[in-house]
Amino acid sequence: MPCQMYISIPCESGGVSEVVSIGFWDYDDWDQFDEYHPFDDEDFKSGRDFELYCVRLLQCTGFSNVRRTGESADHGVDILAEKDGKLYAVQCKLRSNSTIPRSAVAEIFTGKALYGADEGILMTNSNLTRPAHMDAMRLGITVWDLYFLRLMSDYID
Questions:
Q1: Does the pLDDT at position 10 exceed 50?
Q2: Domain 41-155, second-level architecture
Q3: What is the reported pLDDT for 8?
Q4: Which of 10, 51, 59, 124 could be disulfide-bonded to 93 (CB atoms 3.0-4.6 Å)?
C-alpha cells in the first residue's frame, strides 16, 4: 500500500514553503503491480467514460458534491469535488498508449485557479512524463496515475 510522507521544502529565500504530501511505494506492493488487477478490465471507450469512472471513484473515497463540468470551455477541469472543507478541481486524462505531457499539468493548474479551487488533481490511466511530474510537484498538483488508480479502484462499490 502506498504510504504518505509530509515534508517541508526550503525556499531559495531561506524560508520554508508549504508542507507537501508525497506518496511513495512499498516494494512489496510494487511487485504486486505486475499481477492481474480488476482495474485492468475497465474498458474506457471515451474520455467521458473515464470521467464517469473518476466521479465514481471520488464518491467512493469520501469526496462529496462530485460533479462534472461542461463538455467544452472547462479550462482543463473535468470534475469539481469537495472533501474536508476544500474544493478540488480534477482533470481526467485517458490515454491508450502514450504518456501525459507537462501541458496537462499547466491546464489543471490554470483551471484550479479559474474555478477558485483549493487543490488540483490530475487523474490518468497512464503515466506522466518526467517533466510533467516535476511540474506537478512544483505547482502542488496531486497526481493519481495508473498505479494509484489500480490501488484506489478497490474502494469502488
A1: no
A2: 3-Layer(aba) Sandwich (3.40)
A3: 42
A4: 124
